[in-house]
Amino acid sequence: MKRKVQVGIIGAGPAGLLLAHLLHRAGIEALVLESRTRDQIEGTIRAGVLEQWTVDLLISLGLGERLKREAHFHDGITLRFNRGSHHLDFPELTNGKRVTVYAQHEVLKDLIAALPADMIQFGVRDVSLHRLGSESPLIRTAEDEIECDFIAGCDGFHGPSRQAIPKNVLKTYETVYPFGWLGILTEAPPSHHELIYARHERGFSLLSTRSPTVQRLYVQCNPKDDLKDWSDDRIWSELHQRLETDEDWKLTEGKIFQKNIVSMRSFVCETMRWGRLFLAGDAAHIVPPTGAKGLNLAAADVVVLAKALTEWYRDHGTDLLDLYAPTCLARIWKGERFSWYMTTMLHKNESEEDFVQRIHMADLDYLVGSHAAQQALAENYVGLPMAV
Ligand code: APR
Ligand code: PHB
């Protein structure tokens, strides 16, 4: 079937769905095309930390009711190394800002439930992009031909949008880490009231939460590891050792009901626009999960894009569209820097020289002794101010 829409959005992740909301609110007609099913999207476990402005945005869009009821609001994080714990008090360090722990798939459920059903097509096959340099770019799917004014490529790292940009104009930057995270969900009460990021000789670990009865924990592993080699006993043994402390603290075990391994990379595609195609979120940039910037960076992109498209539909002004990539990249690179800093400081990297490992220990030592360094970390963790 042939049809027309003002903005065609490829991908129903945080970027695509939030953009759909922002455009809908501005009276711009958008259609989201998603290859997975709604159940798959709402059931995929990802990270779960929202920056303060992301929370404020969701609430201002009327999407914060369940979040306000069910999210966990934390006053900081704990860094653990050399068997000691160091609390960073975010409200004190950032003038009142906090951290919100609310799983990404819960955000997606809220975004999907609040969009008119005919704005999203799930299970769409064979998406391809055409005529990107023209004024009427086209999205083809197995069943439809959709003519648009603009296409938003919100289809993640592996989607077709970035691939549709000619290789000779693509400018990308990448570093791949020689470690990954094994994540578990366990039926247990929280072992601590806030997140604990731990550096240990055996590798990094992270204690996070999902609800009063479900906890999320991670251990650094080899990204090529097979889940079969990670028995429940081995996971708990590693977590106990890596989170060990001289304080009066105990890790509470529970039944593990979900395990997954994620590899880690930092990636930036500076070509965020090609003609009438605009890339947003993971389609243009990836961060390792340490510091949980992924969703927040995706949200920041689409706030900038929605504003630029709103300007275009108001008076055909192109200034903000032209500024889209540079505006986003200024924030993206800071998110990349912060995620890289947290990742390299907290992980055991066998391929690094001993000298560099010592520098990371000095980084941690400096951090816990310096209010200024803590402020810098906290300011980035709760989210840098939005430029728009
Ligand atoms: N056709 C249609 N949809 C596609 C296609 C395709 N060919 N390829 C991928 N998609 C969909 C995926 O199924 C996914 O639902 O695009 C969506 C992209 O969503 P995300 O990968 O979540 O990316 P994004 O919205 O940019 O959000 C970034 O989400 O994935 C996390 O860690 C990431 O926190 C970060 C944030
Ligand atoms: C999570 O809860 O999944 C989580 C929290 C903090 C991170 C990454 C992931 O830095």
Descriptors:
single chain; 388 residues; alpha+beta; 8-stranded mixed β-sheet; 12 helices; 19 strands; binds adenosine-5-diphosphoribose
Question: What would you note in describing this structure?
Answer:
By secondary structure, the chain is of the alpha+beta class. The protein has helices at residues 14-25, 38-43, 52-60, 65-70, 90-94, 104-114, 160-163, 232-242, 294-315, 319-346, 354-369, 371-382; strands at 2-10, 30-33, 49-50, 72-74, 76-81, 84-89, 99-101, 120-121, 128-130, 138-140, 145-153, 172-187, 195-198, 205-209, 214-221, 255-269, 273-274, 277-279, 285-286. 37% of the residues lie in helices and 27% in strands. The protein contains twelve helices and 19 strands. The protein is globular. A hairpin with a 2-residue loop joins strand 5 and strand 6 (84-89). It binds adenosine-5-diphosphoribose and P-hydroxybenzoic acid. P-hydroxybenzoic acid binds next to loops.
